[in-house]
Specification:
It holds the Pfam family DUF2252. InterPro entries: DUF2252. The chain has 15 helices and 13 strands. With 470 residues, it is α+β, with helices and mostly antiparallel strands. The protein folds into 2 domains: 2-213 and 394-469, no CATH class; 220-379, no CATH class. The strands form 4 sheets. The chain has a 6-stranded antiparallel beta sheet, sandwiched between helices. Helix 5 (131-146) runs antiparallel to helix 13, helix 6 runs parallel beside helix 13 and helix 6 (162-179) packs across helix 15.
């Protein structure tokens, strides 16, 4: 069990892993039963074969399990009051969160101004809330990546991690710098993400993704080079019947009129640009969202870009945050049927630098088995993510130096995104870093110890829960 001292009360509290703290035994019957019940609830609305695939993916290793178990995380944070009991918690220190913040939920793409960046992405779980949810979740993922069997940079049961500490220190350093910077977006401290050009040839992100930008085309395998169609790719992109294609095409036409892209082009050019050429269903994508209805749409206005149309539902945290937290979680969005997709779209706009994707929007479909509310974004031809664990690449082995640099970069990246997303709207403070830094100042070492302790404890919990799954 991880027990962390509380500066605020002088007492202590157990951290993560059900009501009894961190579970050390993989045969714990109560925890196993509780996990099974939660998994059953997660299977609702997902085709059985897709859910079986999700469980298979989660079973590969601790990090892949962690990627698919955001609900476990929020349940455990709530049961132990890990966030609200932190001496570094304040109900005012809130911002837009990525909310499933692990190391695989950042990647490369090109922003609306053409800048190729490496930044946070995938905002399906996003909400306005305490920064600690993102910090703790990313901290645990740093530990899990370092302890993957292919990397083997630390012992699996180590109660501390030098990589988590590097991450926490980098987050603090960036918050401190931003808090003291009065210019921010007008030439002060850089709070933009890494770009392809400034990463440096020895940077691990550049090394892992590849520095050569020529011939990139993340969507090429799905594009028919001889026509306007999408190619069917087994276990990736599959055909839909004519009724589904018509339903998607009709919904795209309505959604398109609400986008920044349409507003810029005008009606005539907008209709031509968004004219649907083909629709295919995306399958077996990701881990956490695997089984969610998702379509790729090829439109006339782009040769190498797709619309990614993804169904949205209640997020993983919904049942596990307090009434007070839930009151601000949606950033003031109304409670209409489109709220979940609107939440995702708004988080994209707030958290991503260099201008939001002009294709962002909300799409509503009904009939033909595709009923639901969907978020829409552009799928960039630059899209790529890091191979971090042996499940991604059996031959992968991250070097200690590279892992340390990555941990620091993720800390800077997350602090920058948190500060960038907080602008006085949607229930966020005008200056997140300026509000947070006084809360931490003077307790920097305690903060790093806390993030390290919670991150390592929850990494161990993911390892144990994987054992209970099998």
């Amino acid at each position: 069990m991880a027990v962390l001292a509380s500066r605020a009360t002088g007492g202590s509290y157990s951290v993560v892993g059900g009501k009894g703290g961190l579970i050390g035994s993989p045969t714990n019957a109560a925890r196993k039963s509780e996990n099974r019940q939660l998994l059953e609830s997660m299977s609702q609305g997902i085709p059985p074969e897709a859910f079986d695939t999700k469980i298979d993916k989660m079973s590969v290793g601790p990090f892949t399990f962690y990627r698919g178990s955001a609900k476990f995380y929020y349940r455990d944070m709530q049961q132990q009051n890990v966030v609200v009991n932190s001496p570094f918690y304040s109900s005012e220190a809130r911002t837009w969160l990525q909310a499933d913040m692990h190391m695989a939920n950042a990647g490369r793409f090109d922003a609306s101004d053409g800048t190729v960046v490496f930044d946070v992405n995938d905002f399906d779980e996003s909400f306005v809330g305490s920064y600690l949810y993102d910090v703790y979740r990313l901290a645990a993922s740093v530990a899990l990546v370092a302890r993957d069997q292919g990397n083997a940079l630390e012992a699996a049961d180590d109660p501390t991690s030098k990589f988590v500490r590097k991450f926490a220190n980098a987050y603090l350093d960036q918050i401190k710098a931003l808090a003291g910077d009065k210019r921010k977006d007008s030439g002060g401290v850089n709070r933009n993400p890494l770009t392809q050009n400034n990463a440096g040839k020895n940077n691990p992100i550049a090394k892992l993704l590849g520095k050569d930008l020529k011939g990139l085309g993340a969507n090429k395998k799905w594009l028919d080079p001889d026509g306007p169609n999408l190619l069917e790719v087994p276990d990736s992109l599959i055909s839909v019947d004519a009724d589904v294609k018509r339903a998607v095409a009709a919904a795209v036409e309505a959604y398109a009129r609400t986008t920044d892209k349409w507003a810029k082009l005008g009606d005539k050019k907008g209709r031509d640009y968004f004219a649907v050429q083909d629709v295919k269903q995306r399958v077996d994508a990701g881990t956490g969202s695997l089984g969610t209805k998702r379509f790729y749409v090829r439109i006339a206005g782009s040769d190498d870009r797709l619309l990614d149309v993804k169904q949205q539902s209640l997020p993983a945290w919904y049942d596990y945050v307090s009434a007070d937290e839930k009151a601000v979680a949606y950033g003031g969005l109304d409670g209409g049927k489109e709220r979940e997709a609107a939440r995702v779209v708004l988080a994209y706009k707030k958290m991503v630098a260099y201008g939001p994707d002009p294709h962002l929007g909300v799409l509503t479909m009904s009939g033909s088995g595709v009923d639901g509310i969907y978020s829409v974004r552009e799928r960039s031809p630059w899209k790529d993510s890091l191979d971090l664990v042996s499940a991604d690449d059996p031959n992968l082995h991250l070097e200690k130096k590279d892992m340390g640099t990555l941990a620091e970069q993720y800390g800077t990246l997350l602090a920058s995104a948190h500060d960038r997303a907080s602008d006085g709207s949607n229930g966020t403070p005008e200056d997140f870093s300026g509000l947070l830094w006084p809360l931490i100042k003077g307790g920097e070492d305690d903060f790093v110890d806390l993030v390290d302790g919670v991150g390592c404890a929850y990494a161990r919990q993911a390892q144990v829960d994987l054992g209970l799954l099998k």
